[in-house]
Structure formats: structure tokens, C-alpha cells
């Protein structure tokens, strides 16, 4: 682990813990996701390390399963967002002309509507399933990825090595995937970390408003909503998933910053 800053190392450890907990949730959760095992808002005990929730379910188990759902949806939506947004952005930059103008103006139109309001309107008339949530979140967020990838690709597209590839007779697909994309990875990797964090916050917000993950499934935003009334009585059940959201966001951001700095340094060393 030499050469890794302490902040990035902490971020890697926390991120790994969250993702491994999500992957192996069925094996490490002490109780079932919707299993009532005690009284309402019981305090922490040897049987329930974080206490129970508003109807007597084990809060630690709900937190683990909620992390599984939250991370699954956020990861899938981020991958969809980058697959669609980066492909369209790079295509628009390379093709230019009316294709670039048409895609850019359409993206501007979609971005003129706040993403949360757009999602609430769509989800209010569609069945709220995990697949629908991933599609809505991923496609809405792909507009941001489009803007970034197009801006980066426009600068790269006029460089000498791209012109040399055109003179060799390479097609647009080769130029996009072999010339522009490798040189655009550094800012896009950092942006991927930020978009993942946004997806975690997005799905948590939708669930808190009642249009995200539906019971009996658990996610961190839904757990906050279910237990928010306990805050008045000094019960921390709603704060624990909120802390999980914050620590996951910070840890992923630390890792993304380290990767960006590392890839930029490596690129600079090769260029020199």
C-alpha cells in the first residue's frame, strides 16, 4: 500500500466495507429484512447492536439490506448514465455539425427541468420498480455526463494525434474508442465518483419522498423516512442511515480524487 495517501487509504477501506456488506448482505445480516424481532425503537443491546426501528425490526439488518439496495441502484444508474452520456457526448464531438447541434439542444432542453422534479413527475405515472428507478435516474443523469464528455472530447478532437488517425483513414468508431476515450478517462473517472454519490443522494431523496424504493424493501432514504418521528424523542434510528450516506459519499470522493491525481500524474510522466 505504499504511495497511497492516508485519506485515499481510509476512503478505500470504507468503500470496500460498504460494497462488501452490500454483496454479502444475506450472509452477514443477523435478521431478515422485514422480520419483526422486538419492540418499537428499542435501544442498542447485545441482541440488536443498533436497536430496533419504528415497528420493531432490527436496525442493523435493515441498514445492511438498505445499503445493498441503495448501492445496487446507484451503481447500476451510474453505469447507465456513463454508457449513454459518454457515448453520445463523444459522438457529438467527433461528428460535429447538425448531429452535435441536435444532441446538444436536446440535452439543454432536458437539463432545463430540475432532475428531481422530472423524476417525481415520471415516477408518479409509472410503476415504481427498481428497474424503472435505475432507468429514470440513469437517463436523467446522462445529460450531465454528456456535457462533460463532449467538452473534453472537443478539445482532444483537434489534437495532432487525432488528425494523424484521420489521415491514416481511421473511422469515427476507432477515433472515439482508441484516440479520444483513453485520453478523456481522467476527468471522467473523477466525475464517475461524483455521479455515484449524486445517485446515492438521489435515490435516498426519492425514497424519503415516497417515490423511491417501496416497502418491504429497504434503502437508506426509506429508513430515514420511517424513523424520522423518533428524532423528536431523542431516538437516533433515523440518523444512523444518514451517517451511512455521508460516510459513503466522503469515502468514494476520496478514492475518486486519488485516482484522478494518480492518472493525471502518470499521464504527465508519459508526456514528459
Please explain how this structure is put together.
With 272 residues, the protein is mostly helical. It has one domain (6-271): MetI-like fold (Orthogonal Bundle). Helix content is 73%, strand content 0%. The chain contains ten helices and no strands. Helix 3 (59-95) runs parallel beside helix 6. The two termini are 26 Å apart. The model is unreliable at 266-272 (pLDDT under 50).
Q: What proportion of the residues is helical, as a percent range?
A: over 70%
| Domain module count | 1
Quantity of strands, as a count: 0
How widely separated are the two ends? Answer: 26 Å
Largest sheet: none
Mean pLDDT: 87
Query: How do the SSEs run, as a string of H and E?
Result: HHHHHHHHHH
Could you give the topology of this structure?
Blueprint: H1 6-23, H2 25-28, H3 59-95, H4 97-111, H5 115-124, H6 130-157, H7 160-167, H8 172-208, H9 220-227, H10 239-271
Properties at a glance:
single chain; 272 residues; mainly alpha; MetI-like fold; disordered C terminus
Concise account of the structure shown:
The chain is mainly alpha-helical. It has helices spanning 6-23, 25-28, 59-95, 97-111, 115-124, 130-157, 160-167, 172-208, 220-227, 239-271.
Amino acid at each position: 500500500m505504499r504511495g497511497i495517501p492516508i485519506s485515499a487509504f481510509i476512503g478505500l477501506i470504507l468503500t470496500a466495507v460498504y460494497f462488501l456488506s452490500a454483496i454479502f448482505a444475506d450472509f452477514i445480516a443477523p435478521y431478515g429484512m422485514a422480520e419483526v424481532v422486538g419492540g418499537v425503537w428499542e435501544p442498542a443491546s447485545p441482541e440488536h447492536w443498533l436497536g430496533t426501528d419504528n415497528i420493531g425490526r432490527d436496525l442493523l439488518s435493515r441498514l445492511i439490506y438498505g445499503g445493498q439496495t441503495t448501492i445496487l441502484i446507484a451503481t447500476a444508474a451510474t453505469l447507465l448514465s456513463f454508457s449513454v452520456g459518454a457515448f453520445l457526448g463523444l459522438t457529438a464531438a467527433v461528428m460535429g455539425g447538425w448531429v452535435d447541434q441536435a444532441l446538444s439542444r436536446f440535452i439543454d432542453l432536458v437539463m432545463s427541468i430540475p432532475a428531481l422534479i422530472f423524476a417525481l413527475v415520471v415516477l408518479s405515472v409509472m410503476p415504481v420498480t427498481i428497474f424503472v428507478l435505475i432507468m429514470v435516474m440513469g437517463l436523467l443523469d446522462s445529460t450531465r455526463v454528456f456535457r462533460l464528455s463532449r467538452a473534453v472530447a472537443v478539445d482532444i478532437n483537434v489534437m495532432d494525434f487525432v488528425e494523424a488517425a484521420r489521415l491514416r483513414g481511421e473511422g469515427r468508431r476507432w477515433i472515439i474508442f482508441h484516440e479520444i476515450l483513453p485520453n478523456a478517462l481522467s476527468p471522467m473517472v473523477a466525475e464517475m465518483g461524483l455521479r455515484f454519490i449524486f445517485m446515492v443522494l438521489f435515490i435516498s431523496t426519492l425514497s424519503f419522498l415516497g417515490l423511491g424504493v417501496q416497502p418491504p424493501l429497504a434503502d437508506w432514504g426509506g429508513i430515514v423516512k420511517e424513523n424520522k418521528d423518533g428524532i423528536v424523542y431523542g431516538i437516533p434510528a433515523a440518523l444512523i442511515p444518514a451517517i451511512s450516506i455521508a460516510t459513503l459519499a466522503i469515502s468514494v470522493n476520496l478514492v475518486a480524487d486519488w485516482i484522478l491525481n494518480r492518472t493525471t500524474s502518470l499521464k504527465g510522466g508519459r508526456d514528459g
